[in-house]
Amino acid sequence: MNSQYLSLFVVVPLAAAALLIAVRRPALDRALMIGIPAGMTLAGISLLVQHQSTPVIAHNVGQFPGGVSIPLISDTFSALMITVTSLTTTVTMVFLTQTREDRFRFLAPLAIMLTAGVNGAFLTGDLFNLFVFVEVMLLPSYALISITGTWRRLGIGRLFVVVNLLTSTILLIGVGLVYAAAGTVNLAELAGAASRDPRIGFAVAVILLALAIKAGVAPIHGWLPRTYPATSAGIMALFSAVHTKVALYGIYRIYSTTYEGEAPWAPIIAIAVALTIIVGSYSTFGEHIMRRALSWQMVAGVGHILLGLAIFTQFSLAAGIFYMIHHIVTMAALLLTSGAIEQTYGSGRYERLAGLARRDPWIAVIYAFALLSLVGLPPSLGFFAKIGLLQAAANAEGWQAWFYITVVCVAAVGTLFAMQRLWSGVFWGPSMENYRPEDPNGGRAKRVPLPRDLLVRWNLAAPGAFLVGVQLVFFVLAGTLVPIAQRAADNLTNLEPYVTAVLG
Amino acid sequence: MILPITIGVLVTGGVYLALQRGMVRIIFGMALLSHAANLLLLTIGVSAYRGEPLADRTAVDVAADPLPQAFVLTAIVITLAVTIFMLTLAVIGHNDDTKRMPATGEFHDR
Predict the structure, then answer these.
(1) Which residues of A touch B109 (CB under 8 A)?
(2) What is the Cα–Cα distance from A237 to A291, expressed in whole angstroms?
(3) Where is pLDDT greater, at B37 or A147?
(4) How many structural domains are present in chain A?
């Protein structure tokens, strides 16, 4: 792929969103909201293939000379993130059409606009441009989080907007401080700058703080488990696949480029990571609703992903990136399957659901495989992801090795028990007797006896099942994924190709 | 010193208002905070140089740095859009203090 085509990753979704706002055709809505992320997945794979020979391709938008222009840069890390998030987005969009959520007038254009921001954030090599693309991603989300509900979701939308606007303001201040201290916001020019000059180091730390809030790192994670579960399952899966992951990508990229290794305040990362993992996995116990429990697991996952950054070796970065891929796919599979159960049986509460393993064995099988992946037991991609992290932790220096291994193992035990609680609440126990069917006026109708033949329809179960299948395939073919993660980590530790490609 | 003091006052007011109950006050707080951020961005261009940054019109040694101004312009647009959206949420959401449910007749059981 020629480097000037990189801007198509942003331009095509934006143009499609504009088209869908002007033209009102439900069939076109569906075709584009599924087709565009699917096309992005293929384009991402072709980029990955190309990066086997050329590590970095960069395009200076508008052909301005390097250093002045805004660069779009693709390397293995960003291409991998585009591929995985686009694949998950495609499956989520299919789910949204199956729950008939695409009947809301602006859902399709907003969701496509969201992917434009996500792709832009992955490709940009300019800090201010990163801020802009994060905003392009967030503005449709503000609407999406409350579009599929009624007044109750508006309250959650308020919390989401206020937290994200505050964080964006902090991010903007950080970008401004970087410009004041370094005279540039071009990431390639900032390579190694933060470790040379403490003023730039402080400015970069402000940016990283903002991204950490957006990622949901403890102790500033509280907004995430309160807002995400309140929206619909499809939208939550979409958000979990892209929002926190864009922030994590930004943290990985900016930290490793500007600090080129350990920051002087690296112990803070270690503490925050350990806190995030423990808080996330043990808070799961306190929840009685499937998607709320899973949102705490998202927090724990953020901690696991950042563990790779906290150790900061070539291997640990690769392990962190590998965990990120696993987490995106597994979390989306769990959320979509939970959504299918909620849609069919009218509730996601442990108390309201029971005996689904007997009643609906296929859903139980899908959910079981996804849970195995979440906990990190074979056969699943999560097994290799967790082994990679533990291996990286074991190679860390001194106290770090023991500390990280203890944290990961203690958290895994917590996750295992919390997920058993979910399993016994939802899939075991006596048969369900009544449920609230969907009300044509919105929401749920009065409680009625549960008909014997009511099962999760295959078209609702298929998206989650597909993602479970994807992670099972990569359990077998993990050998193909490991070199890609290693090349992605190589992009972060060996900055020379990146800098030469951008600045010429 | 006027700019730093103004930024400080704006941040103080913004934090105070953002911690209040009631969506409208929070929105005003967020507006003050973003004004503070915008002023900070302008300061970055070193406020001593403030000639309009146009070639052939202003000598380079008095012209302002155009990049922070572009930053501020982008940020203002984004904040304005989000502020209007938040005001909409404040109007159509429920009452902040009583948590009274609007009578839509629907029932949710998550």
Answers:
(1) 346-347, 349, 352, 436, 444
(2) 10
(3) B37
(4) 1
CB pair distance less than 8 Å for B37 and A352: no
pTM exceeds 0.80: yes
> A458-492: per-residue pLDDT in tens?
999 999 999 999 999 999 998 999 999 999 999 99
Q: Is the ipTM of this complex over 0.85?
A: yes
* Placement of tokens 């800098």 in the chain: A499
What does each C-alpha distance from A485 to A300, A377, A388 come to in angstroms? 21, 21, 11
A101-135 tens-digit pLDDT: 888 889 999 999 999 999 999 999 999 999 999 99
pLDDT score, position A127: 94
CA distance between the termini of chain B: 54
Q: Is residue A441 part of a domain?
A: no
Distance CA(A343)–CA(A373), nearest Å, equals 23
In a domain, A442, yes or no: no
User: Are B75 and B37 in contact, with CB atoms under 8 Å apart?
Assistant: yes
Q: What distance in Å separates the CA atoms of residue A241 and residue A334, rounded to the nearest whole number?
A: 12
Contacts for A315 with CB less than 8 Å, ≥ 6 apart: A391, A392, A395, A489
Contact list in B for residue A156 (CB cut-off 8 A) is: none
Let me know if residue A444 belongs to a domain.
no
Q: In the structure encoding, which two tokens stand for residue A478, read together?
A: 């993990």
Residue A93 sits in which domain range?
3-435+453-503
Asked if A470 and A372 count as a contact pair (C-beta separation under 8 A), the reply is no
Q: What is the pLDDT of residue A464?
A: 96
Q: Is residue A391 part of a domain?
A: yes
Kind and range of the H or E run holding A74: strand A71-75
